[in-house]
Amino acid sequence: MEYGVIDIGSNTIRLCIYKEQDNDYVRLLNTKDTAGLVGYRKDGYMTAEGVDKACAVLNKFKNTLSIIQIEKLFVFTTASLRNIKNSLSVIQEIEIRTGFAIDLISGEQEAKLGFTGASKINKLRNGLLIDIGGGSTELLEYEDGEVKDCVSLQFGSLSLYSTYVDDVFPDKKEYKEISEHVKNQLEEIDFIKNRSIETILGIGGSIRTVRKMCMKKYKIEDKEFNCEHLSNMLKYTKEEPKEATQLILKVAPERIHTAIPGMIIADEIAKYINARKIIVSSFGLREGYLYEKLKSGI
Hints:
This protein is of the alpha/beta class and 298 residues long. Helices cover 45% and strands 24% of the residues. It has helices spanning 48-65, 79-82, 87-98, 107-119, 157-164, 172-186, 205-218, 227-239, 241-251, 259-272, 285-296, and strands at residues 2-8, 13-21, 24-33, 41-42, 45-46, 72-77, 102-104, 127-132, 137-143, 146-153, 199-203, 224-226, 277-280. The strands form 3 sheets. It has a 6-stranded mixed sheet, with helices on both faces. A 5-stranded mixed sheet has the order 3-2-1-6-7, sandwiched between helices. The two termini are 15 Å apart.
């Protein structure tokens, strides 16, 4: 049987199709639209243009699904519609205009479902899971393969870009402002304060983009890389912006404006917890959400 999952994120809206196989799920389709919904906000409210954009993408996916037979479709949204003042009215309007029932999940749910998805293909012992989205960043500490603590922070790669950056790349002043904002937010998280956590488990598009860039520049072939590579990559983007632009355009052109804010977030987290390595998981939130939905029989 095949199942569909639509993830309405702050930066991208993504449709994935999974097939049930040998008591597991194989991803058959992974398509996205870089909608940038976090950019359609005014005074904390999503604008009519933002609603129109979301509906246009979702109705496009609806056309795709009309020619694919699936057993069940699940649609959920995270910070894109969670962190706005008119959240409920926007979701209701999108539901009416698309015919989709949308599940609004909390930041804590987002972190835990990301862990569930990642745990399906990774042997997890001790570490800190990070999920850098467009509008939020989730941190979850796990110990002996079990969730210990988690938090959702109300900033992501696209929201920081929109708040601080005037051009495509942040200048020195903007870079410092983003770094200071992230550090100040990390200082408020008790469960990582004065801690050393060696391993970061990264899920989501931002961390996958970092890995792709490191693979190209440093010839890394494994799914993990050293935090030193991350710091060096950031230094490279500042010292050689033209070459860095070409690199991003090669590996993730749709993230040309959000790649560096995402890297700054990852780097500040890694430095704060004295992390040594980053493992990148191809499974995360969407897979965890699907597993939990099917397990509950919904």
